[in-house]
């Protein structure tokens, strides 16, 4: 990518319910308004060919790059290449990519599903959108693409809020407290 590019990344298997098709549909609108935006799909799966065909049919082949399957050790490097993370899955607990991107200082644009609402905080860490929505996703991406200070601010918000929360020491401490509470309640039964 070149310096003038704004890279929107999605980390997920190329599989049903992951929402790649919604990103592609939003990309049609984004491409008209923001020629500097590029899309990076990290992951592989059975839908790669149909997604590539959909991108080609939309005339967006020069805007998209697929990494294929990558080892987990490369994810931080790929997040580093992104300016924005998009999460368009329709069902998922808390996708690892969301806290990873937020801790790396990248804002997130996500559908309001399952665990996403715990970390994608509108106005603080990113944009939370109705599932399957195309135009709101495009509008959020256009706004972020055109405003570097907004990207930086939301990215810093994610880093500040979640770096400590997702540290393994903190998570271990919280899990230990939960176990102690459950055991104490059971002992009292």
Key features of this structure:
Rossmann fold; alpha/beta; globular
What report would you give on this structure?
This protein has one domain: Glycogen Phosphorylase B (Rossmann fold), CATH 3.40.50. With 189 residues, it is of the alpha/beta class. It is built from 8 helices and 6 strands, in the order βαβαβαβαβαβααα. The chain has a 6-stranded parallel sheet, sandwiched between helices. Helices cover 47% and strands 14% of the residues.
Extended strand count: 6
Q: Give the ordered list of helices and strands.
A: EHEHEHEHEHEHHH
Give the overall shape. Answer: globular
Distance between the termini: 60 Å
- Catalogue the unreliable spans: none
| Global structural class | alpha/beta
CATH secondary-structure class: Alpha Beta
Give the percentage of residues in beta strands. 5-15%
Cα-based radius of gyration, to the nearest Å: 18 Å
Strands across the major sheet, in which order?
3-2-1-4-5-6
According to CATH, the fold-level topology is: Rossmann fold
Q: At the fourth CATH level, what is the homologous superfamily?
A: Glycogen Phosphorylase B
Number of helices: 8
């Amino acid at each position: 990518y070149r310096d003038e590019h704004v890279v929107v990344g999605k980390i997920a298997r190329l599989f049903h319910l992951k929402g790649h098709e919604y990103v592609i549909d939003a990309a049609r609108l984004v491409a008209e308004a923001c020629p500097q935006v590029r899309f990076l799909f990290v992951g592989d799966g059975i839908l790669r060919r149909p997604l590539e065909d959909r991108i080609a049919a939309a005339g967006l082949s020069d805007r998209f790059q697929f990494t294929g399957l990558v080892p987990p050790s490369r994810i931080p490097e790929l997040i580093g290449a992104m300016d924005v993370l998009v999460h368009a899955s329709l069902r998922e607990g808390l996708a690892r990519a969301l806290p990873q991107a937020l801790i790396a200082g990248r804002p997130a644009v996500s559908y309001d599903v399952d665990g996403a609402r715990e970390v994608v905080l509108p106005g603080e860490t990113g944009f939370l959108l109705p599932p399957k929505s195309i135009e709101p996703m495009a509008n959020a991406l256009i706004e972020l693409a055109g405003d570097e200070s907004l990207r930086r601010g939301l990215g810093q918000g994610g880093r500040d809020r979640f770096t400590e929360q997702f540290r393994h020491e903190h998570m271990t401490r919280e899990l230990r407290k939960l176990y102690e509470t459950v055991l104490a309640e059971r002992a009292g039964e």
